[in-house]
Amino acid sequence: MNECLDSKGGIVELLRNAVRPYAWGSRTAIAELLGKPVPTPHPQAELWLGAHPADPSVLLHADGAQISLLEALRADPDRYLGARCVQRWGNRLPFLLKVLAAEEPLSLQAHPSAEQAAEGFAREEARGIPRDAPERNYSDPNHKPELICALTELHALAGFRDPLRTVELLAALNSPALEPYRKMLAAEPNADGLRTLFTTWITMPEPAVKAVLPCTLDACVALLRRDGVCRDFRPHRGSDFRYECRVILELAETYPGDVGVLAAVLLNHVALSPGEAMYLPAGNLHSYLRGTAVEISANSDNVLRGGLTAKHIDVPELVRVLDFSYGELPVQCGEPLGPQEIAYHTPAEEFQLTRLEWAERESTPVLLRGSWPQILLCAQGSVELRSQDGGYVTVPRGGSVWLAAADPEVTVCPVTTPVQLFRALPGLAHAN
Ligand SMILES: [Zn+2]
């Protein structure tokens, strides 16, 4: 990866970003994106682009100096973040951009609302739980709405399925062990019924889990034997639950005995194609199962887990923040902002994600306006950024740059096409 800055005097700065080595990560996807050798000796799960205190990006100056983005923001917030951003969020970058590379399922999780996060953080501070303690739920007082945009096909569980369809799935599984739960949900096919059944399962004592879980898996195997394995491995509509059964079996293989596997019976199973995105509001129960994606979220690390992990699980706290409303989440393909740019819309004030694309041999330059802090990530091809004073910087595939709010406008020119460039900025800003 090109880590030297060619810019002459501009404030366009290349970033070096931290790789987080969680066990569910891929040994190829992130290294390939960064042009590094594969496979890597350890899993690489997330690339963090931003100024999260746990792992801030580093600005690479033209003179060879390197400075943590977090320190740069604190030292000169007006220049880096701009007055409007500082007024709203203080000296903090409001968003965090990530590349996620999941080889195995991530934990089953939900994120708190702004009010829940503020209250939870204050409560844990008052109790004196160290911020880095494993049993700490709230590491900061912020909410964490997120948008996930697939780079490869991305499989996920996200939000509760319409309970009437879940009743159908339970009927299709046709297992005496599941019959009481099917009846329970059929009697109350709404958010309250989902709350009751989810809480029953997630708090089930171990002997009960040991009885119900294997029966569920046997029923999935039986269904696949009866209906045949689906070749295209995508969720189907109607009464075809083969995809769901396969996912449940795969989860159980990765996390044997984990009660979180049962949650997969209740959740929407989603497969996003490259370029498709999904917004996950506060309280949405989700787990990314497999694939590579760009994720943008508010700059927070507040996660409440319910299973599918070796990390700290706090079921009562999870159930407290969960939203039991149901139905499929809208899948976004992005709306055109200009000839080269599309935007994914969310209600989040903290972030906005757009994608710029140039087809093969296409060369139209695009002007990006400043006044807000921005991060650009080149996911395909390469581009050159030119500032008005004649400075320029080349951004290779996997490369990223920081555009300070005080930066004058920059022009993006495709170099190696086709190009795919992600652009992250605060949601309050209106891109271009
Ligand atoms: Zn999440």
Brief summary:
The protein has 432 residues and is α+β, with helices and mostly antiparallel strands. It has a domain at 162-265: Phosphomannose Isomerase, domain 2 (Orthogonal Bundle), CATH 1.10.441.
Any chance you could write out the topology, listing elements then pairs?
Layout: E1 12-16, E2 18-20, H1 29-33, E3 46-49, E4 58-60, E5 66-68, H2 69-75, H3 77-80, H4 83-89, E6 95-102, E7 108-110, H5 114-126, E8 146-150, E9 154-160, H6 163-173, H7 179-187, H8 191-202, H9 206-227, H10 242-254, H11 260-263, E10 267-272, E11 277-280, E12 286-298, E13 304-307, H12 315-321, E14 331-332, E15 335-336, E16 341-344, E17 352-358, E18 366-368, E19 374-387, E20 392-395, E21 400-403, E22 410-425
Helix pairs in contact: 6-7, 7-8, 9-10
Zinc ion (ZN) binds next to loops.
Keywords for this entry:
binds zinc ion; alpha+beta; single chain; 432 residues; Phosphomannose Isomerase, domain 2; disordered N terminus; 22 strands; 26% helix
Written description of the protein model:
This protein has helices spanning 29-33, 69-75, 77-80, 83-89, 114-126, 163-173, 179-187, 191-202, 206-227, 242-254, 260-263, 315-321; strands at residues 12-16, 18-20, 46-49, 58-60, 66-68, 95-102, 108-110, 146-150, 154-160, 267-272, 277-280, 286-298, 304-307, 331-332, 335-336, 341-344, 352-358, 366-368, 374-387, 392-395, 400-403, 410-425. With 432 residues, it is an alpha+beta fold. The chain has a domain at 162-265: Phosphomannose Isomerase, domain 2, CATH 1.10.441. The strands form three sheets. Strands 1, 4, 5, 15, 16, 17, 18, 19, 20, 21 and 22 form an eleven-stranded antiparallel β-sheet that branches. Strands 2, 3, 6, 8, 9, 10, 11, 12 and 14 form a nine-stranded antiparallel β-sheet that branches. Strands 7-13 form a two-stranded antiparallel ribbon. Helix 6 packs antiparallel against helix 7, helix 7 runs antiparallel to helix 8 (191-202) and helix 9 (206-227) packs across helix 10 (242-254). The longest helix is centred in the middle third of the chain and has 22 residues, at 206-227. The radius of gyration is 23 Å and the shape is globular. It starts with 11 loop residues before the first strand and ends in a 7-residue tail after the last strand. The model is unreliable at 1-10 (pLDDT under 50). Zinc ion binds at residues 109, 111, 146, 286.
